[in-house]
UniProtKB/TrEMBL annotation:
Signal peptide: none
Domain of life: Eukaryota
An example Gene Ontology molecular-function term: transmembrane signaling receptor activity
UniProt GO BP: cell surface receptor signaling pathway; immune response
Annotated keywords: Disulfide bond, Immunoglobulin domain, Signal
Name of this chain's protein: Ig-like domain-containing protein
GO CC list: external side of plasma membrane
Domain (Ig-like): residue spans on this chain: 1-68, 71-151
Amino acid sequence: MTCDIQGGEDTDWDYRWYKNSQLVITFNTKSEYRISPVYVSSSGSYTCKGVKGRTFSKTSDAVQLTVSDQPKAVLRIYPQWLNPGDSVSLSCEVDKTSTGWRFSWYRTVPTLTEQSYSFQRLPEAGNGATEDSYTLIPAGPTPTGGYVCRAGRGDPVYDTLYSEPQFLWSGDLQPSVSLRISPNTTQHFTSKSLLLSCEEKGNSTGWRLMRYTERG
């Protein structure tokens, strides 16, 4: 932050700095006040005042500084259960009140370490990285697997955390069953009941039902 004394010479001034009307620096011979690194606790309303001998400048207008924790991107995939050749829409969301983000899209690759992933960046498509959505249009079988997104802005670039992995699932190249979830919502809560039904297209007799989760 820089304190500019308007109508006065730039030399021989000392500077006082205030946070939320409380004096934080009594005298500073430089007109610049640097906070490095910043923390969430650095947030506040800052003002400054010039002092030259017994002469005091007026107090500056207040500048509000807001420091937030590193945001985390949220990825949504629709649909998550696919037939071969279906297009898939990925959407990446950061804080709805912020703008200027550029988005990156990745396919997750499991590493040898349990519950750990490496990321393979997907090529930009459509209108480029400023779009918060990405469409997968597979030329072959459905690209089952995990996907994440991340956003960044500013110069130098400040990145969000990676989103939690979201997964695409599909059956055989010629699927014969479809999975239905009831209630059909994107969010479910503990202690509530959830019905999964596996519907075979055609003759349903003689089949054995199997359940698959992320772990197997």
